[in-house]
Amino acid sequence: MIIFYNKKSGQIIGTIDGRIHPPEHLKMWVGDKEKTGRVVIQWKPTGKKITEIVKKPIWEDYVDKDGFTEAHQVGVKKTKVKSIEFKPKFNPDGIITDFESGKKRIYDYKVKLKKDEVVGFMLK
């Protein structure tokens, strides 16, 4: 996630969602660079491995007595998916993960600044 904010007020004025950003995203800027700051939230692996069971429906075509084909679910396939957990390097009070999951709206907050550096977030 890349967060753009007003350097004086801390007001968040734009974001680019995602955990991995191509070079084009890292070159992007919202507003005037003199008035707008940005913080790029980096993610790092925790070393914890995650195994999830993913359920996918199994469909088969069925031809009715009039010759029309319909799809019917005939079962569920369970698949184990293994991945590695990641967490944001900068995550004051766990708020970045709340923004990402949709539990909290980023535009309800503004950044806390200390000597022109983002140190956290606060409600407006």
Report on the structure:
With 124 residues, the chain is mainly beta. It folds into 2 domains: 1-42 and 89-124, no CATH class; 45-87, no CATH class. Helix content is 10%, strand content 56%. The chain has a 3-stranded antiparallel β-sheet, with no helix packed on it. Strands 4-5 form a two-stranded antiparallel ribbon. It is elongated.
SSE order and pairing:
Layout: E1 2-6, E2 12-16, H1 23-27, E3 36-40, E4 43-63, E5 69-88, H2 95-101, E6 109-114, E7 117-123
Antiparallel strand pairs: 1-2, 1-3, 4-5, 6-7
Number of domains: 2
Give the overall shape, derived from the CA principal axes: elongated
State the secondary-structure class.
Answer: mainly beta
The percentage of residues in β strands lies in over 45%
Report how far the terminal alpha carbons are from each other: 20 Å
Instruction: Please outline the major beta sheet.
Output: 3 strands, antiparallel
- Counting DSSP H or I runs of 4 or more residues, the number of helices is 2
Q: Strand arrangement, largest sheet?
A: 2-1-3
Order of helices and strands: EEHEEEHEE
Q: Measured on Cα atoms, how large is the radius of gyration?
A: 22 Å
Mean pLDDT metric: 90
Low-confidence stretches: none
Helix content: under 10%
Task: Compute the number of strand runs.
Answer: 7
